């Protein structure tokens, strides 16, 4: 068996070498082709041909299509399929190549000044920008690369930089002032240079940060309760809003028209703590202080599934879909993180948090 495999491998390599020699002849590198032919001891002549180039192009195209297929949404089905997640293509670097950067240290070294604590933050889709919101009602948008680079420069090096250079490399690219009270949540638009923010002043604001001089919001949505969470539809045309009120709002981003679910009985009975769309936009998930997790149809806004008392009636802090839309990850004030399988409506795994410390006192993200 081993000899057969080795024989097949040698034959394939001989074909590969012949293709390389033919490609070199075709491209006009006769000397290289002759030298390679003598090195690999090619048994017969290799006429000029661009077949290798053609095969490479076909392979690259097929590889790209395969990656796109792997990241496509898969409808929930019966059984456990965690392999889908682990085999999906990812752009994340290898764990060993990560650099540890203290966020607060980076904030200090980049001279980003708030007059109050920073309460909210959000990255854009490609991770190049981060927005932070403060109790002082201001919002700052930062360039992540500049932020990390600036934090790595020692205080002695700073003195050597000219003021012009320093201003050019400053990570804060926009500072926005339009809220009257604490900024509670932030969300970047998935495709455009828009930033949505929610606040204790009961407003949702949309900023067009493509304009360098922007300070005020492009659009303002007035709500009746404190804004707690936001989530853009993957298309960017709609925005889900969760507030202190138990009813979830859906807004058209272009017209700011408000929609709510058709069945009042579907709604939570406590303030909304987190809301998130799936990657496909066909579903969204909500969590509440009432302890329930609800799965909603992304088109009709009808509740299609409920996990009652998901964390033993403790407040749900956060919920998020897996990339394939088959699972939901939640965290609660019972100090547990739970993985839910939607097709079977069950909790697959519970990860212990504080353990013997008991109930956690503050909200945490899963």
TrEMBL record:
Principal location listed in the UniProt entry: nucleus
WD repeat spans: 176-217, 265-306, 309-350
Localization terms from the record: Nucleus
PANTHER family, per database record: CLEAVAGE STIMULATION FACTOR SUBUNIT 1
Membrane spanning residue stretches: none
Domain Cleavage stimulation factor subunit 1 dimerisation intervals: 9-63
Entry annotated with the keyword Metal-binding: no
Gene Ontology cellular component terms for the protein in this record: mRNA cleavage stimulating factor complex
GO molecular function: RNA binding
A Pfam family of this chain: CSTF1_dimer
Keywords: mRNA processing, Nucleus, Repeat, WD repeat
Protein name: Cleavage stimulation factor 50 kDa subunit
Native source species: Leptotrombidium deliense
Biological process per Gene Ontology, one example term: mRNA 3'-end processing
């Amino acid at each position: 068996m081993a000899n057969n495999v080795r024989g097949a491998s040698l034959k394939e390599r001989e074909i590969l070498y012949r293709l390389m020699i033919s490609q070199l002849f075709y491209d006009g590198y006769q000397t290289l082709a002759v030298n390679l032919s003598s090195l690999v001891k090619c048994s017969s002549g290799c006429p000029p041909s661009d077949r290798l180039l053609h095969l490479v192009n076909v392979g690259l195209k097929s590889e790209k299509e395969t990656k796109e297929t792997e990241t496509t949404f898969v409808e929930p089905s019966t059984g456990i399929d965690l392999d889908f997640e682990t085999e999906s293509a990812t752009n994340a670097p290898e764990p060993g190549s990560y650099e540890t950067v203290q966020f607060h240290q980076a904030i200090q070294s980049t001279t980003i000044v708030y007059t109050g604590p920073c309460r909210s933050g959000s990255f854009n889709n490609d991770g190049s920008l981060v927005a932070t919101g403060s109790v002082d009602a201001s919002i700052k948008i930062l360039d992540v690369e500049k932020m990390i680079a600036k934090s790595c420069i020692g205080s002695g090096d700073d003195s050597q930089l000219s003021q012009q250079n320093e201003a050019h490399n400053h990570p804060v690219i926009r500072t926005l002032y339009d809220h009257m009270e604490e900024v509670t949540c932030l969300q970047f638009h998935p495709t455009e240079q828009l930033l949505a923010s929610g606040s204790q002043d009961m407003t949702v604001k949309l900023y067009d940060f493509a304009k360098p001089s922007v300070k005020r919001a492009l659009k303002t949505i007035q709500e009746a309760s404190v804004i707690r969470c936001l989530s853009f539809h993957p298309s960017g045309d709609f925005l889900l809003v969760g507030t202190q009120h138990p009813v979830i709002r859906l807004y058209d981003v272009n017209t700011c028209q408000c929609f709510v679910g058709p069945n009042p009985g579907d709604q939570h009975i406590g303030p909304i703590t987190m809301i998130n769309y799936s990657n496909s936009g066909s579903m969204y998930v909500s969590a509440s202080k009432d302890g329930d997790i609800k799965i909603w149809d992304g088109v009709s806004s009808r509740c299609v599934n409920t996990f009652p008392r998901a964390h033993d009636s403790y407040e749900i802090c956060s919920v998020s879909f897996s990339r394939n839309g088959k699972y939901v990850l939640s965290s609660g004030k019972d100090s547990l993180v739970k993985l839910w399988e939607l097709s079977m409506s069950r909790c697959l795994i519970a990860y212990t948090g504080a353990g013997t410390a008991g109930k956690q006192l503050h909200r945490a993200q899963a």
